[in-house]
Description:
Largest sheet: 3 strands, antiparallel
Shape: globular
Strand content: 25-35%
Structural class: alpha+beta
Helix content: 25-40%
Number of helices: 3
Radius of gyration: 15 Å
Amino acid sequence: MRDHSRSLLDVLLPDGQRHRWTWYDPVLWASLLPRLDALQLDAAYGPLTDWVVVRSSVWQWFTLSTGQLIVTPRECTPAAAA
């Protein structure tokens, strides 16, 4: 996992420049994953099957299944008050 995570540190922009990015930022994944083609998705997921984007009321599961991206929102249930 460490090697895969390190491989995500640099991205190649359309103009050919390399750019360092924060691969663990859920806002980036939520907007990026639906735009990737099958080869790019395979590279982004590596050994993973899911990316989970955590938000306050809805979490999104981004699942890679047979080269297809499946997005499943799941509502969060607030924790009971103690």
